[in-house]
Design a protein that fits this description.
The complex is a heterodimer. Residues 78-93 of chain A have low confidence and may be disordered. Chain A has 9 helices and 10 strands. Chain A is of the alpha/beta class. Helices cover 36% and strands 16% of the residues of chain A. The chains are: A alpha/beta, B alpha+beta.
Chain lengths: 301, 463
């Protein structure tokens, strides 16, 4: 009997396309990983995922500092030019690549070019809209689930490929995304290229995903294939990197600093680093509690 | 009762793709692995662990991977799956064993398989084997037309099997040969008509994707005898299964063998060609994903809506006028009334047992009812009333009341000691089937009878 899983799997790749970070990569001495190479390796990885099972599905989202964009499948606004699609297919090189893979590769390359050329704002940010991209991913999963005709079950996972650093302003949204993913039984994996990210560490731990900082960037494809390709059912059976010590400190709601000890509102459980008489989330009031004993005023007769 | 003993309980066995490919010779496999489409099709059918092992080694420049390294890739509890995966890979010659210099055994991925799989993933092949695109077709056909064409051609073949008057024309000699070879129909004399066999009935009750696959396997078995090259046919079949529905492709670059194969496929309804000389063809829904064994969404079934309603009083109402469907129903139901657009039938113990006698299983009957269930029935859970499904299964279990073993009876022993001696000897040889010590009777299997007889004669001579 062949051991084959009966479930199909939906993979969503959220790729960090922060131009500042990728630009810095080009100026590094050994040029381990350029953006072009990263896209090519990502394409091979995505096609491998589709190759594993005929029913597997794919979605790629680019997380840019100013916006997020669906790289594959093409978003519906672009379908106005759908008639060109058949022309593209007619000219597709007949070099033995499976047609679906060719379509995926072409679409993603076109959309990335489109994304880069349309970013004319000139502003530089050190981070990208990751929580927004992940919310889009979760919405897509929900939509696919509703659209399934024959009610076959499928497992879904989100792979985040991130190079730029975290920004604490995204903390709240990120935590909400993580808890939604946990509810939906979606696994969040993280493939970290440069700086460790505590948010993603927490995400992977809560949703049973894999967090991996790539030791050698030039071997990105091999790491992707070895570690992130197996889906949920197979992961239990294979030996994959386990999670390390995670920084679970929460960020305070007023300054977004990480705090170890702080004040918690008893109504809505929001966290503050210093005492506030009115909670900004739920507007509950608190009496000032002074730890020093109030000296009893002697009533002078 | 005699019917029980004689019944041929042969279930229609259908090999899946891996089992079929394992029967091919290594040279054929090497030829197949030169084509990206075949590698892709075979890769998809591998067990899960095997797929991951191949993916991990696919892009590694270093030639060999040590076996104990591969064994560390999985948790210890799943060693069985690991062995199963390795067996599949070595059985298909995808992976070869080598001894490394350090003395440790290692695995090496088959070179042509590796190259072809990389081409399938990323492109870069020389395009010699692929099908080209053409300028737009002025006689372009849409998907609905292709569906109706495929359905009509396939039903032609099914009608022929069932021998109904309507679709008996238009079947070529080759199709007849394949049907005879596969045992779905058989002939009495040399020139007489063909009639359907038990296997044929089972075949008809399968869902359409299994039918097509079974038929193609049988066809491939006869390919060599027709003088066609099996590597070319298989390659074309794999390529065909990965094409896109609704697009046309050129048949220019195909060899003669492949052109002949294409004409046969045209007859089965797997491709559509406007004329024989036409250089372009369209794959139909039956051909897409032909080689995959995952449950397919052959929407031909949903286009042709289900038409059977089953009630809890064992009545079956079939809203169909097609003689093929009525014939199929009559295999296991008694037809009570026929109307122009409806047939009323009844499932009874006799009708179902007659079906069992001709080799149909309860599962096949239930699957047939489920897959052709009317949309109104599909709204209920479960689709077929559980009373009916349980009763059909029970009727099938009724047939398993007796086990027949051939044997020889030994009786009329003079003394208890003789009986026990012989019984113990038979037990030692494990040929004893049954014994009754108070009556001093024992039964020995036919094959063990000779031994026991010799022993007894020797014993009688000695004492």
């Amino acid at each position: 009997m062949a051991y084959r899983s009966d479930e199909s799997s939906l993979l969503i790749v959220v790729l960090d396309t922060n131009p500042v970070w990728w630009g810095q990569q080009l100026s590094k001495p050994n040029r381990d990983l350029t953006f072009t190479n990263c896209i090519e390796e990502l394409l091979v990885f995505c096609n491998s995922h589709l190759m594993m099972d005929q029913r597997n599905k794919l979605c790629v989202i680019a997380a840019h500092p100013s916006k997020n964009k669906f790289l594959f499948p093409k978003s519906e606004l672009a379908d106005e030019t759908a008639s060109d699609d058949s022309e593209i297919m007619r000219q597709t090189k007949s070099d033995g690549q499976y047609e679906l893979f060719a379509k995926v590769s072409e679409t993603i390359r076109e959309e990335v070019k489109d994304l880069i050329f349309s970013d004319t704002s000139g502003e530089l940010h050190a981070d990208c809209m990751l929580s927004g991209a992940m919310s889009m991913a979760l919405c897509y999963i929900n939509r696919v689930e509703k659209e399934q005709l024959n009610k076959e079950s499928f497992s879904s996972r989100i792979l985040v490929i991130k190079g730029s650093e975290d920004h604490q302003s995204q903390y709240m949204n990120f935590m909400m995304v993580i808890f939604t993913a946990q509810k939906q039984n979606t696994i969040i994996d993280a493939c970290i290229l440069d700086q460790e990210s505590s948010l993603l560490q927490q995400a992977c731990d809560i949703t049973n995903g894999i967090y991996l900082k790539i030791p050698q960037l030039s071997g990105l494809l091999q790491y992707l294939l070895c570690v992130f390709l197996p889906d949920a059912k197979i992961r239990k059976k294979m030996t994959l990197p386990t999670n390390v010590k995670i920084d679970y400190r929460a960020a305070c709601f007023c300054h977004r600093n990480l705090v170890d000890i702080g004040y918690v509102c008893s109504v809505c459980l929001s966290i503050y680093c210093s005492f506030t008489p009115i909670c900004t989330t739920c507007h509950a009031t608190f009496k000032i509690v002074d730890p020093r004993p109030i000296p009893k005023k002697k009533i002078k007769k | 009762m005699a019917a029980f003993v004689k019944s041929v309980n042969k279930k229609l066995a259908c090999k899946d793709l891996l089992a079929y490919v394992k029967t091919l010779t290594p040279s054929v496999l090497e030829g197949l692995y030169n084509h990206p489409a075949s590698c892709l099709a075979i890769f998809r059918e591998l067990p899960d662990f095997a797929k991951h092992y191949v993916m991990r080694i696919l892009f590694v420049e270093q030639v060999m991977v040590k076996q104990n390294v591969v064994a560390t890739w999985i948790e210890k509890d799943y060693a069985n799956e690991h062995l199963d995966a390795i067996k599949a890979l070595t059985g298909l010659h995808i992976v070869h064993e080598h001894m490394q210099y350090c003395g440790l055994p290692a695995w090496k991925l088959n070179e042509s398989f590796k190259k072809s799989l990389q081409i399938a993933l990323m492109g870069g092949g020389n395009g010699a084997n692929s099908l080209e695109m053409l300028p737009p077709d002025k006689y372009a056909k849409d998907i609905a037309f292709l569906d109706s064409y495929a359905q009509e051609r396939w039903e032609c073949i099914l009608h022929y099997i069932v021998q109904s008057k309507e679709g008996s024309g238009g079947i070529s000699r080759e199709v007849t040969e394949i049907l005879l070879h596969s045992g779905l129909v058989s002939k009495d004399g040399v020139n007489s008509d063909t009639f359907i066999t038990a296997a044929g009935f089972q075949f008809l009750l399968l869902d359409i994707s299994s039918q097509i696959w079974y038929f193609m396997i049988r066809y491939l078995e006869t390919v060599e005898s027709r003088g066609m090259n099996i590597v070319e046919c298989l390659t074309f079949m794999f390529q065909l299964s990965f094409l896109t529905l609704g697009k046309d492709y050129s048949s220019d670059k195909m060899s003669d063998n492949q052109q002949r194969f294409l004409q046969h496929l045209r007859e089965f309804g797997l491709v559509y060609q406007r004329k024989r000389k036409c250089q372009r063809f369209y794959p139909t829904r039956l051909a897409i994903n032909l080689t995959s064994s995952t449950p397919k969404d052959i929407a031909l079934e949903t286009h042709k809506q289900g038409f059977i309603m089953v009630e809890t009083n064992y009545r079956v109402y079939a809203y169909t006028a097609s003689p093929l469907q009525v014939n199929l129903l009559s295999a296991f139901c008694i037809i009570l009334y026929r109307f122009p657009n409806m047939v009323v039938a009844s499932i009874t113990r006799e009708s179902v047992r007659a079906a069992f006698a001709s080799g149909i299983t309860a599962d096949q009957i239930i699957n047939f009812l489920k897959s052709h269930a009317h949309p109104e029935m599909l709204k209920k859970k479960p689709v077929i009333p559980p009373t009916i499904t349980d009763q059909i299964l029970l009727w099938e279990l009724e047939r398993n009341r007796f086990n027949f073993d051939d044997g020889v009876l030994y009786s009329q022993f003079v003394s208890q000691r003789d009986f026990e001696l012989l019984r113990d000897y038979a037990k030692d040889l494990s040929v004893l089937v049954w014994e009754n010590p108070p009556k001093r009777i024992l039964v020995v299997t036919r094959s063990g009878h000779e031994e026991v007889k010799r022993f007894w004669k020797r014993h009688k001579r000695d004492t």
